[in-house]
Amino acid sequence: MYKALQSCAIMALFLLMAPAFAADKADDAVALITLENGATVRLNADFTWEYVFLTPQISATTEGQAIESQRTETVQTQANTQANTQAITQAEQASQPVAKVQPVVIASGPVVGGAMTASAMDHANLLRSTAKGGAKVSYLKSQWDSKGRLGLNFELSSNSEENYVIIEMEIGLYADSGELIKTETVNVWQAIFRVPETYLRKGQTRDSETFWIEGIDKARWSKELMTLKIIDMSSR
Questions:
Q1: Is 0.70 surpassed by the pTM of this model?
Q2: How far apart are CA 31 and CA 50, in angstroms?
Q3: For position 7, what pLDDT does the model report?
């Protein structure tokens, strides 16, 4: 129930703020919102949202460019703040749960590194599931084999009318310190061509196969820090 109220609050604020940012299609971020549990989510211009889990580091060669970009965005940030304040006021009047809204300032230049934020590490369980197109993938368990490889298993469920045959997902694995160790792309669901009973259908819950990943130090991965993101889906 609490998560449902959080989702309602996020979408209510997004719908209230979206018109103010509709003209700026170049920037996918509308606002960052800190939930009552301390987790931060990012509202996107395509009406989706995602957890914010990295602290970006801008390369030294583009630092000056980033600073200048931030200066030119000051006016827009002030406008964002005013729109955010109005959105919160309207949400309060509508008796919606209100989350703290932060204006978004995105510096130009490539992000060359990053570490998982302390807030994300405190709420690591939130990053162990992902959803898209009515399908949800959640981390189920891990294991280690005799070769030192990490094995990961996931649970999939669907409330979509689509019959999914392939769900491609990106896995980010982070050390206990929050440092990114590696990313791995897997077909977390792979049906058999022209065998309908292997498709992921509405109302079903299925377990994935075990995905074996090399190059992970067991001693550095005791907190099981990871991020999941569905990047492609195919249906029949």
A1: no
A2: 11
A3: 53
